[in-house]
Each structure stands twice: as C-alpha cells, then as structure tokens.
C-alpha cells in the first residue's frame, strides 16, 4: 500500500472561484473519496469530483484499488509486460493522478493505492478517512446500470455513493428528484445527506413515488408519507405519485420531463434501489444513469 500525503503547504481546502457568488454553502462535505481505476469513466468521475470539491471546499481522497500485488513491480516502479513493454506501477499512476488534481486547483488532496478486492478496499478507506461521499464512474456503453464494483459498493458501503456516468459534466445541483419506495420506513437519519445537498446548493426538491398500476399500497404509503414529511420538515418540496405498468419507466419518464440535476434513491434491503442494483436490468432503467445518481443507505 502507498499513501500520498496532502500538499506540503498544509492547506485544507481550495475555494472555488465562483463559490462566493453562487450561493453555494461550503464545507458541508469535508472529505470526498474518489474511486479511480484510471479508465475514461473514472477520469470523468474524478473531474466531476474536482468541481464538486472546489464548490464545497471539500478535501479529495483518491483511492486506486488494483489486483496486481505490489511485489510484482520492480526496477523503479515498473514491470515487464508479456509483450516486452514496461507497465508503470499503480503507485506511480496514483501519484500522477494526485499531481494532476493539485494542478487543477484542488489543494487538499491525498491518495492511496492498494491491492485486493475493489469494493472491500473502497469501503475500508471510506471508513478510515470518514468520507461523507464516495464518487464512482460508470462506463457509458454498459447495458446494465452499473458494473460489479459499483453494485458491491452500494451493498457494502454505509457512505452515500454518487455514480457519475462517463459523459456527464458537472453543473451546480439546482434540481433534485428523490424517488421513494415505502416498502421500508424512511428514518430521519436516512435523509441527512440529502438535506446537506439541498442546503449546500440551495436546490429545489421533488419527491416521487412510482407505483405499479392497480397496486393497493395505501397501507404502506400513508405512514411512509408521514415519516417522509417529518424527515423533510425543514424543506419545501413537491410530492408526486405516479402509476405505471413499469415502475422503472415511470421514474425515467418523470426525470425526462422535469428539470433534474441529481436523482436520489435510498438503498433499502429489499426496496427499489436494491432491485436496480441487481444482476439484471431493463434497458429503460439503464438510462436512469444518464446523469448523476446519489444512493443513500438506510441507517
């Protein structure tokens, strides 16, 4: 394992140049963990995280989990590939990435390269640095919604995970859509990260509950809405209930027809988000990842 320490000047934040005039409140997220595997998808997620860190004054903790043992790299951090070339070590690649982040204006950045299970390594690092957010990239060409590492991270992590599609560019979050599923109760603590996002960006909030046509869910929805109202008592929001033959298509239609900078879902044990992160997905659901998706975990 190799760690790259913060910049020697000791700064702990890099103010975004426009933050003072944008109405964005700072230091809501002290530490953002950014998962990288040095692919175009993760590079785009890193660029998104850079802008988010600048806007909020957050520190970036870059994590590169690889499967090649460190001992395989010799001779100044390189190893010979089967075709006779030289492969740079993960540690050197991480250092290059950290230096690029610092040159991009993020002063508070450090990183770690380690080997082993990707999801397990990310979960450990998120806990170690007490990250408030994990940022991960998603490849644009995938037919399923998310790759296996993201799926495992959603299931294992207690830290909110922000999934950034490969072709998405950063914009300040002004319009948030929260999709709720009342199969399990929503606790006040479950929505604390969402409240932070709303406060940080002074964003508007729409809450949607998409149900299957003809389903009798009043016994679940009524207490669920009461609990939701308590959890969001400090905020104004619009609530919409929709009925669709296909719940996934209903969510997609809604976000396509309403301004949406961020879709938020809560990963209950057996709820909608859990189903979305399963092994099979419809084509319509895969389009949900056309913009950033924030997945919260139940407390």
Description of the structure:
The protein folds into two domains: 130 residues, Rossmann fold (3-Layer(aba) Sandwich); 128 residues, 3-Layer(aba) Sandwich (Rossmann fold), CATH 3.40.50. 33% of the residues lie in helices and 24% in strands. The strands form two sheets. Strands 1-6-3-2-7-8-13-12-9-10-11 form an eleven-stranded mixed sheet, with helices on both faces. Strand 2, helix 2 and strand 3 form a beta-alpha-beta unit. Helix 4 crosses helix 5. The longest helix is centred in the first third of the chain and has 17 residues. It holds the Pfam family Usp.
What percent of residues adopt helix (DSSP H or I)? Answer: 25-40%
Q: Approximately what portion of the residues adopt beta-strand conformation? A: 15-25%
Q: Please give the oligomerization state of what you see.
A: single chain
Instruction: Give the tally of structural domains.
Output: 2
Q: How many E-type strands?
A: 13
CATH fold name of the largest domain, please?
Rossmann fold
What is the overall shape? Answer: elongated
Look at the structure and name the CATH superfamily of the largest domain: HUPs
The end-to-end span amounts to 31 Å
Main-sheet strand order equals: 1-6-3-2-7-8-13-12-9-10-11
| Number of continuous helical runs | 10
| CATH top-level class of the largest domain | Alpha Beta
**Structural class, from helix and strand content?**
alpha/beta
**Unreliable stretches covering 5 or more consecutive residues:** 7-22, 70-82, 142-146, 278-287
Mean pLDDT: 76
Tell me about the largest β-sheet.
11 strands, mixed
What's the SSE pattern?
Answer: EHEHEEEHEHEHEEHEHEHEHHE
